[in-house]
Write a structure and sequence with these properties.
The protein is mainly α and 603 residues long. It contains 28 helices and no strands.
Amino acid sequence: MDGAAASVGLSSLDWIIIGVYFIGTALVGLAFMKRAGQSTKDFFVSGRNLPWWIAGTSMVATSFASDTPLFVTGVIRKQGIYANWMWWSFAIGGIFAVFFMSRLWRRSEVITDVEFTELRYSGRSGAVLRGFRGVYLAFYINCIAMAWVILAMFKFFNVAFGIPRWQALVISCGITVAYSALSGLWGVVVTDMIQFAIALFGSVVLAARCLQVNGGFVALRNAVVNTVGKEDVVRFFPRLPQGVSVFSGEFWTPAIMSFFVFISIQWWANKNSDGGSVVIQRMLACRSEKDSLLASLWFNFAHYALRTWPWVIVALASIAAYPTAKDLKAVGADDESVYVLMFMRLLPAGVLGLMVASFFAAFMSTISTHINLASAYFVNDIYRRFLVKNSGERHYVLVARVSSVGFMVISALMAMKAKSISDIFQFLLAFSSGVGIVYILRWFWWRVNAWTEIAAMVTSSVVSIALYVASDRKWMGPFTPQQTLFATVVVSLVVSMICTFVTAPVAESTLVEFYRRVRPPGWWGSIAAKVDLPPGLRVSYARDIANWIAGVALIFGSMFGVGKLCLGYWQSGVVYLLVGAVGAVVIFRNLSKQDSDEAAQRV
């Protein structure tokens, strides 16, 4: 291959560190093998006994995959820091899920979010939806997600060691599938704690090294701006056109249009609008409703405010070091894999081994979760529900372990054909963008039924694929990812609402039982009137709205405050941090008041 792999090697100390990490991970799998094998409840939701700090940290570790820093590096090199709104916008929906969804999910006491469909809907349509979503999430969504994470490891092995894809696949996936299949969610969350610490430490050390090489925060910023020739690369928001009306076509540049779609549509249209499968699984595994809320709040803070900037600093340093595609080609890298090149060339022996281990940790934490989740959908919502209904718990755990290997194989085959992490990510955003609003409405509005979800899922898939094919073959001209997402959302919403009103509502007895068990807010009309709840359990969501607004201020204030300080904008950094602090105070006071109210009700 290339000069990158040929010029860099790992020392004996590096290999020892990597070896210790792999041995430790394997031992965790063996240690939790017996506990996870007791029942599917233990295997898939850890017996519902996770405290918030373990569940939340596991959420954070899982969302930090080996693809994440490569993805961030790629979008910054191509567009600038503001391009991260592609995923920053999800913080709005993430905080919504914290205060509106986390307690509701925990109350449902299902094993998967797919099982929820037969709790919420009745009859054959509910069963059809459960089976359909089980296949959809297990064989498509989770496998696609694993494919782009595996692709990142291919790029890592190619740049770091010059190893071809099939060898990288065997090395990176072997231990991961073994310990996740053996230990279930227990092993996943415990190793997540270790993997998160290693991965975060590695990214911070690399960022510090990049700052040292470039002379500090301000010097790095100036070097990047001078290299690119404009300040847009370090802006947090796209530049507004000057002297142009907002109602004119000239105002809506591609960057402005993308930003508008991200903050106004994407966060609620995406499949993760009510938490997302990975986060929901941890919510369901928490020991209480409060633990579920705190876990998801900690996840959002750590994911956006803490982890963003080490990746951004390394991406900026890569621009200063390798500003053009020609420079990257000369060292055998691209806009994404240059992140690997940076740590292979900047870190000393020992630290380099830890960084390589952290890359494995990021990969394994995400892959192990998706393996467990795909297996949960298959066993709990397809195999046990429709194929083999009355077998013993140990039989279902055995099927879960075998299917874990199968899902890894499917994802690996997808990854072998893929080329770009960001392309897969943007396709998946559009592919699942029509279902988000339905996932929210099913909690807040009694009239939503199973056919609403089925229509949204089918329409979203068909429209997004059709637009991608049309764009690729230039039948209707090229569509941007944002145009595809917008069109998919609009068509899916219209079709799903039509299906809602032309099909029968859910049986009243099912709705009454659902409301009694979950106590959702929103438009439940006569259903709520039929459920005689004690005064302390009656639904009020005014405080949740205040917490949502405060939570958004906390996340973005903290994130932009840290970012401004990292780029040497001291005054604006302090202002943003103050905004975040105000949001934290409001949330703390409201949660304390809620605890006091609940304590008084128990007395």
